[in-house]
Design goal:
With 207 residues, this protein is an all-alpha fold. It is built from eight helices and no strands. The longest helix has 34 residues.
Length: 207
């Protein structure tokens, strides 16, 4: 019956949490392959409702494993997934994956260092996107200003409109361009990760 199903689910969730806590606490001492095998088994049987704290721990453990194996692309995938969670928590307005229960995540120094190392290229890419967007909007606003000026609109109104157009375009497009790049880059790294991680992350990545 329904009560028995709930009890079984609760027991499975508790077992999942205990095993993940064990792997997390042993992350510096456990044999790499032994821990990795246990982690893949855990991902194959996740708890009913996965929370953001557990998700970040799993992605960090997988990312460090890939890093030690020399698979930098797979390690970067895990870092980008952690970044996604932290970004959603920081910016409440962001669209969140439906199949992930969000809780406050306080990344420790290890996770922060891991993200800085794996995602250094993001800051450079975002600056490039920002610079190109400024240039594009600048050209559009100058053309708009010249066209409107030819129509006899007063100088200060024309200038104010151009400034507002620039700001509106920047705030509208910059976030969208960043998100689109992040999504494409994440999916481009999928071939480098293992099938267990793909299946584990599929509902969250596409949800």
């Amino acid at each position: 019956n329904a009560d028995e199903v709930r009890i079984v689910e609760q027991q499975m969730n508790e077992r999942f949490d205990r095993e993940l806590d064990r792997l997390w606490n042993d992350r510096h001492d456990a044999a790499m392959e032994t821990q990795h095998a246990a982690l893949k088994e855990l991902m194959t049987h996740p708890k009913e409702v996965l929370d953001s704290v557990s998700y970040v721990k799993i992605m960090y453990l997988m990312g460090k494993y890939y890093e030690k194996q020399g698979n930098s692309n797979a390690s970067r995938y895990c870092a980008m997934r952690i970044f996604m969670v932290l970004d959603c928590i920081k910016h409440k307005y962001r669209k969140r994956p439906r199949f992930l229960k969000f809780q406050e995540v306080e990344p420790d120094e290890e996770i922060i260092a891991f993200l800085k190392e794996r995602l250094a290229f993001l800051a450079q890419t975002y600056r490039f996107i920002q610079t190109r967007l400024w240039m594009l909007l600048g050209v559009i606003c100058v053309v708009e200003w010249l066209i409107v000026w030819q129509l006899g609109v007063s100088l200060w109104i024309n200038t104010l409109f151009s400034v507002l157009l620039f700001l509106f375009g920047y705030f509208l497009l910059y976030r969208r361009l960043k998100d689109r790049f992040h999504d494409r880059q994440t999916k481009a790294l999928l071939p480098y990760i293992e099938e267990e991680l793909k299946e584990f992350d599929r509902p969250i990545l596409y949800g």
